[in-house]
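Lab notebook, page 48
Experiment: co-folding of the full assembly
Goal: obtain a model of how the components sit together before planning crosslinking
Operator: M.T.
Materials (sequences as entered):
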Amino acid sequence: MNLLLFVLKRFLRLLLTILIISTIIFFVIRVIPGDPALVVAGIDASDEEIQAIRAKLGTDAPVTVQYARWMRDLVRLDLGTSLTSGQSVKALIRQRFPLTFTLAVLGIILGVIIAIPLGVLSAVHRWSLWDYLGMVYSQAGMAIPSFWLGIILLLLFSVKFPIFPLFGSDSLKNLVLPAIALGFARAAVILRLTRASMVDELSKEYIITARAKGLTEKMINYKHALKNALIPVVTVTGIQFGYMLGGAIIIEQVFSLPGLGRLFLYAIYQRDFPLIQGGVVFIAVIFSLTNFIVDIFYSVLNPKIRIS
Amino acid sequence: MKELLQLNNITKIFSGHGLLRSKHSGHRAVNDVSFHINKGSVFGLVGESGCGKTTLARSIMMLDPPSSGEILFEGTDLAGLSSKKLLPYRLRMQIVFQDPHSALNPKMSIYNSMKEGLVNIKYPANRIKERIQELLDLVGITPAHMNRFPHEFSGGQKQRIVIARALSMEPEVLILDEPVSSLDVSIQAQIINLLMDLKEKLDLTYLFISHDLNLVAYLSDRIGVMYKGRIIELGDTESIMDTPRHPYTLKLFSSAPGHMEIKEETEQKDSPNPPAGYSFVPPAVSEESDFSLVSISDSHMVGCYKNIGD
Amino acid sequence: MELAVRNLDLSFIQTTSEGHALRGINLTVKEGEIHALVGESGSGKSVTSTAIMGLLPSPPARINSGEIILGGTDILSLDEKERRTIRGQKIAMVFQEPSKYLNPTLKIGEQITEVLKLHLGMDKEQAENRALEILDMVGLGGGKRILKSYPHELSGGMKQRAMIAIAISCNPSFLIADEPTTALDVTLQLQILKLILNLREKLSMGILFISHDLRVVHDISDRVSVIYAGKIVETAPKTDLYSQPVHPYSNLLLQSIPDADKRGSRLITIAGKVPDAENIPPGCAFHPRCPYAMDICREKDPEMKPCGENHLAACHLTDNRN
Ligand SMILES: Nc1ncnc2c1ncn2[C@@H]1O[C@H](COP(=O)(O)OP(=O)(O)OP(=O)(O)O)[C@@H](O)[C@H]1O
Ligand SMILES: Nc1ncnc2c1ncn2[C@@H]1O[C@H](COP(=O)(O)OP(=O)(O)OP(=O)(O)O)[C@@H](O)[C@H]1O
Ligand code: SF4
Ligand SMILES: [Mg+2]
Ligand SMILES: [Mg+2]
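Observation: model returned without errors.
Model output:
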């Protein structure tokens, strides 16, 4: 019951955040010097042509009217029409998003699967084989840039030993290498945090109480310490997931995947303003949504949050 | 003497955990509390665990703003101030909590913990180290240990560090929430002497919170006895100690340790009578407004319920 | 069950120094006896109790010598697994700072019932019923709400009572209470003290009661040992210690208690502070603070000598008596 109300409250906050972000984006785009219509029309365009483009973009109306339209369209989930392709921004995003999202989800799952168990084991069995493995991994993960890893993976497993396809994006098999490239470095961050957080928890006094109760080491580690240790990990994992959605741009380039990243990159090259505007709002919403979900997780783990 | 702090009808309600909070559903941790503290005096607040002493202290500091009521600091209502305007007042009041461990960052050396505050108030950087050493020495911590971490100190040592840190802000009002209950007697005596010395030297004003009636009586000029969120007796220390009026105050007296063998049931002293027309127990059908503090002398009030029919 | 600590000597090994925290502790707590250990902050009370529980991390703690005999067995000679079966079941401990020693993300109910399930093999329902009984016993009526609460939802005093509830849940035969009433107001303190007396009656538990509050110790204990700088300096039946303290330290401690009668005057204090475990003064460790210190006190550490029936003290002042 309490949790439900908490979720509801956070959801309202999410809506508010989206409202604020989209307002900011609207004004930032208006404040940037240069008239989009001029850019779109080119140097040779006549005044009439420019006027026509302005009318098409809606930038001829007063700012307040534009803002009202923007908000109205947003509520209708309408992000406008791309200048270059003529398709609606929503449709474009809808085409591209599943790929990027799948990639990020695969990446984060991979990262979490590696990082959390290894981090916990390193903390529980300090100076053991696990700990060394963890240390080596986190060093490597920090040092190796993901695009480089991506290229190496391609060379190794698509060219030299053609286990995975070099191109294409139609099957999950195409996404394995990019997901590894994406998740590898992120996992190192999560691993380090998990280990540090677990070590920290294990040195707290309530662990002494648990020992005084005669609990087994297993209960102490996994029942008492783990939940407390995961609290900061959840937040960071959420942020990492957000990064992956954004960071996928580079990996999408390396693996020639037609994801969101490439769509927005293209929009920027082409100065497709509605697409840029819609894209930024979309990414912002995804970020807020991720945050929202992280908050919920966080509150399940940490009862103190639910009170305030 | 001037009133430095005046509390008017402070109420703090912890609403459940929802959106649908209403004034009536919540838990009234502090209920309609009013009293004043004169500049340069010690006001002692006693009461049992969970009666709302800490909650009240946090409200006064505006750490947890009250649900209603006024906190007048030299006539300015803190409850109505923006957080920016509040800041200077916050510095003039410092609080020392009951629990020293949560007040010290375990990952920071004592030196760094103390430095933080001093840097915040723009204390001359070249004198910070000297000042910290001076403060630590004042509270009986070897200054050479300032680079140690909280876990290297025993419970009592930690509380002394917390007091030193509060003093570093050179506050005018110090709210002391059970500041010595985790200290051993000899250090307790030292700290109390120290607090009294500092009070005289710096003209400090104390709100001293404790469940130890003997200690509060030793220190305070006036005492408020709190019970279930309410002040049920208020007055000059002499008056309260000599002629306690409320049954709960009497119970506090008889529970004070160190005087008797514990018997299965400590016999109750005869309860004194409530003022005419009032009773100590709430009437069967009671309204919030039935309870009030009734003056029994110039400097002594006792909380009771108006009899029905009067 | 009887507990005997014999010549327990313990150091904390730091990278640059060695802290001699316990310097040959001798302590016997008879079955059904409440034995109070009093002394100032940093004198080694908590180190003694955590050493008895076998909970001191090693390193940095190192036991140099000594025995801890519980009901006839030297628990220092047991391996970790054997000690684990003793902890929580035969010997339990209430800690000084409840807000630190309770798990912040586990409901109080779970923190009590997990011990019952583990040691007594109860199922969930049995354990919860038993937990409610125990909570009632420690004065946390309305136990159902408490069972479902997290530690931060309780006030300081309530947390301490929950802590006591955890410790006594398995009816241990020996209880160590490290400042169990520090966070409580007097009325609840009285209730807890009564509870401890009651438990002693029922279970004939031996209890090591640690406190710095000589008034509380006066009300609850049968016997009192005064500890200073990791050494017991005086041990006596309660009444003897309060009426005729022999050691100057015990005497000063008794005099520094604040009281309404002393209003307006400064309290008597003991000058200086407890030495750090790394820097124990030679001779009698109390000599830098002792108003009666003599030349011999700076050189020779006094031994515990009888100075009454069941009454021992370590002070050179007693040398001249006999
Ligand atoms: N954040 C909170 N949310 C809900 N209830 C709270 C909160 N903090 C305190 N309470 C409740 O308010 C009441 C008063 O608590 P408070 O900590 O002020 O008591 P106290 O007088 O300081 O007790 P103690 O002597 O044990 O420190 C208690 O019933 C407590 O459970
Ligand atoms: N983990 C540790 N590492 C190093 N020194 C320690 C450690 N724990 C305790 N000590 C030292 O051992 C001595 C005794 O400390 P202890 O905690 O037993 O005091 P105490 O008598 O329980 O005090 P208090 O009344 O404040 O709880 C102190 O000098 C303390 O600094
Ligand atoms: S031995 Fe000497 S210094 Fe120690 S307590 Fe006795 S008189 Fe004081
Ligand atoms: Mg409190
Ligand atoms: Mg201790």
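Interpretation: Residues C 247-248, 284, 286-287, 290, 292-294, 297, 302, 315-317 surround iron/sulfur cluster (ligand 3) (CB under 6 Å).
Next step: discuss with group before ordering constructs.
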